[in-house]
């Protein structure tokens, strides 16, 4: 039973960190003043899009479309300071102003203007039932292509943008990262090193530990230790795999696996 509990808690600990993956800031080419940054979060099941564009005119982003798409198909968001709502969820249907989707799925989290640049932070579910929306399931979305149109001259009236000279394109890959909260947790995490170990094992954040119980893989406790400093001797342990049940000073438990050479 103890072995089963230890395995379950170790697995829970490994899966406890929420994962995100991001493209980082990606400028479009040719440069037309629009950049996009997509971040997918598998815990919230949300995508966050940080979209930057010129503050003196409308601009948009075609999502999941590549260079040469010709405005013929694709998902799109368009921003104009004078429309209601200012951000509209649309879809390309040909050489015309993209019509609005029946479902407006993007939400503006923030809208900030600094000088000539407007920065929008937008969110949406990774996947939904809207056939016009580009779906971004976390597990299989490893890259994304997009296109950013804007008019040549300052205007907030959404209209045809004036041809390919006013559109930039990009394809970006996602890189997996830990979320901000997870990084803070990781910095406080109990870590055993080196691992595998021969004679002694060092403990990161040892000052947080009250006591340590060491178990064999069969669930038998082989030792209880009250650490004195940042190392524990494992010289007398036989070669194999051991599980450390670590009681912290705040009363919580941490579980770590050690390979003894």
UniProtKB/TrEMBL annotation:
DOMON domain sequence ranges: 32-148
Official protein name in the record: DOMON domain-containing protein
PANTHER family listed in its UniProt record: DOPAMINE BETA HYDROXYLASE RELATED, MOXD1 HOMOLOG 1
Record GO biological process: dopamine catabolic process; norepinephrine biosynthetic process; octopamine biosynthetic process
GO cellular component annotations of the record: extracellular space; secretory granule membrane
Keywords per UniProt: Signal
Molecular function (Gene Ontology), one example: dopamine beta-monooxygenase activity
Pfam assignment, any one: DOMON
InterPro entries: DBH-like, DOH_DOMON, DOMON_domain, Secre_tail
């Amino acid at each position: 039973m103890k072995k089963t509990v230890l395995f379950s808690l170790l697995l829970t600990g490994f899966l406890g960190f929420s994962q995100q993956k991001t493209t980082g800031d990606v400028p479009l080419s040719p440069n037309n003043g629009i950049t996009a940054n997509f971040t997918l979060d598998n815990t919230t099941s949300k995508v966050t899009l940080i979209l930057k564009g010129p503050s003196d005119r409308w601009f948009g982003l075609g999502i999941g479309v590549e260079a040469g798409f010709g405005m013929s198909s694709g998902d799109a968001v368009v921003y104009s300071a004078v429309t209601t709502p200012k951000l509209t969820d649309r879809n390309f249907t040909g050489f015309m102003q993209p019509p609005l989707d029946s479902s407006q799925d993007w939400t503006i989290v923030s809208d900030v203007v600094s000088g000539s640049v407007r920065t929008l932070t937008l969110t949406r579910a990774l996947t939904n039932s809207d056939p016009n929306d580009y779906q971004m399931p976390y597990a299989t979305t490893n890259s994304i292509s997009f296109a950013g149109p804007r008019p040549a001259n300052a205007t907030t009236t959404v209209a045809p943008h004036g041809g390919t000279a006013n559109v930039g394109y990009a394809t970006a890959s996602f890189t997996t990262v830990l979320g901000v909260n997870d990084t803070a947790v990781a910095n406080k995490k109990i870590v055993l090193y080196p691992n595998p170990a021969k004679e002694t094992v060092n403990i990161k954040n040892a000052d947080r530990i009250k006591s340590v119980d060491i178990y064999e893989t069969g669930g038998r406790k082989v030792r209880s230790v009250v650490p004195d400093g940042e190392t524990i001797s494992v010289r007398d342990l036989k070669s194999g795999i051991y599980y450390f049940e670590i009681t912290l000073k705040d009363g919580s438990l941490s579980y770590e696996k050690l390979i003894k050479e």
